[in-house]
Amino acid sequence: MSEKLRLRFTKSGRAVYISHLDLMRTMQRAFQRAGFALQYSEGFNPHPILSILLPLSVGVSSDCELMDFSLIAPTDLSALPERLTAAMPEGIRVLEAYAPERKVKDLKWLQISGLLEYDRADYATMRDGLQAFFARASIVIRKKTKRGEGESDIAPAIRSVGFAAEEGGVALKAVISAQEPTLNPDHLIAALRQCAPELAPDFAAFTRREVFDAQMRVFR
Fold first, then answer.
1. How many other C-beta atoms lie within 10 A of the C-beta of residue 190?
2. 179 SS3 class
3. Count of CB atoms within 10 A of residue 201's CB?
């Protein structure tokens, strides 16, 4: 079997509305159109060896999506990004392909940015309220789990968070837990709606900016 390789790509524009399953299908077709033969698993139900490290929520853009894959034959990895991008739909751009440096279990933190929009609010007032809310030692929310709905304290999963009032709304920059536990940006908005509805935005959009290990080293 060929060695495992890793792809780093961006997802933006209209592509943010492609679901995880549709993205997997899109990737398979793009490899085929670009002339790269994916390695398949063995057994009764063979499937392409292709996995996205941290599936992205619909509507969230990203500068740093990572996907592991295997090819049947060795290839020039320096040529792969351009050829693969040409076979992708608008909004998906491949940045690099390389042999992985780290295992998925070492991925710990996500750096995100966002814009919280308010139809009728003073942005500076919202900024101050948001900063105070997320400075709490405990932020318990209700969220869905595999066993149903339960309560979870998301405060320990927020390494850092900051807000700035700007034209159009309140800008957010944060570093949140990628796994064990997984904290989605949507959970930040859910916390506001459940615990401080007066601070909840009318609309929010987020972007993944970078991924890190437990020591805040860039993960590749």
1. 16
2. coil
3. 21
User: Which residue type, as a one-letter code, is found at position 114?
Assistant: G
61-69 and 203-213: which strand pairing? parallel
Q: Of 130, 128, 109, which is closest to residue 209 (Cα–Cα)?
A: 109
Residue 57 half-sphere exposure toward CB, CA atoms < 13 A? 14
Q: Which residues contact 125 (CB under 8 A, 6 or more apart)?
A: none
> Is there a contact between 23 and 106 (Cβ–Cβ < 8 Å)?
no
- For the chain, the first-to-last Cα distance in angstroms comes to 22
Residue with tokens 């500068």: 63
Alpha-carbon span 187 to 176, nearest angstrom: 11
Question: What are the residues facing 212 on neighbouring strands?
Answer: 109, 218
Give residue 1's pLDDT.
Answer: 46
* Mean of all residue pLDDT scores within the chain: 95
- Report the predicted TM-score, pTM, of the whole model to 2 decimal places: 0.91
Strands 5-11 and 92-98: antiparallel
